[in-house]
Amino acid sequence: xxxxxxxxxxxxxxxxxxxxxxxxxxxxxxxxxxxxxxxxxxxxxxxxxxxxxxxxxxxxxxxxxxxxxxxxxxxxxxxxxxxxxxxxxxxxxxxxxxxxxxxxxxxxxxxxxxxxxxxxxxxxxxxxxxxxxxxxxxxxxxxxxxxxxxxxxxxxxxxxxxxxxxxxxxxxxxxxxxxxxxxxxxxxxxxxxxxxxxxxxxxxxxxxxxxxxxxxxxxxxxxxxxxxxxxxxxxxxxxxxxxxxxxxxxxxxxxxxxxxxxxxxxxxxxxxxxxxxxxxxxxxxxxxxxxxxxx
Length: 295
Hints:
By secondary structure, the protein is of the alpha/beta class. About 40% of the residues lie in helices and about 20% in strands.
């Protein structure tokens, strides 16, 4: 199976570091020229795509792909991948499966209630509405071109280099207290498990929530990270007094507990890190030993 990846950033890059060897050939896009050489050392053919600039060889690589992973955020007004390459994707002669990485942010606020994929998304922000519209465009492309499209709605991503332990060490960790507020999370390794499952599954054409088992208050996560590091946690800051960017404040406006039952029962994903405690403890162990936890 040949894989093409739009957007080799944190999540897709992590996936390729651990799973690229499962494919016959891997190609994908990056935004900067310096990443091209770095990925070539890992036998990944990297092509520059920084809209509106695009390497002409992307269309050729798409034509050779059996599977497509899309990890590019929407731009203002739409999806740069579909806008530039929608026709080439629809006509790619070998392409069978497409996995599009979205976000649980499309659901909007549900007052802390448990929700699953049967709940109608009600995004309040323009960002969420755009993302939902892009999901629909990918599913529509699949329906009219005969491709199997899986939309993976990711919870808050953490993993090596991007977690509460690192935030404590660089002095950016805060414990913002908004009673009743919880957030859903997912370790980047478990995203990889979900991507592989979706690429292999026949009969897609729908969305799955990709989240761990335990939605939790953000202050609890920071406190646990502090315990692992062996320091006192930062003091609680009342939400009303916290200095937050408009985007950060909008995250606190959406409170929901996202079910991952379909991910487990339908996609067959078994989480390596079912809770933030499992994930942070493994990251701390990796940091001390220099040896990655079992993937």
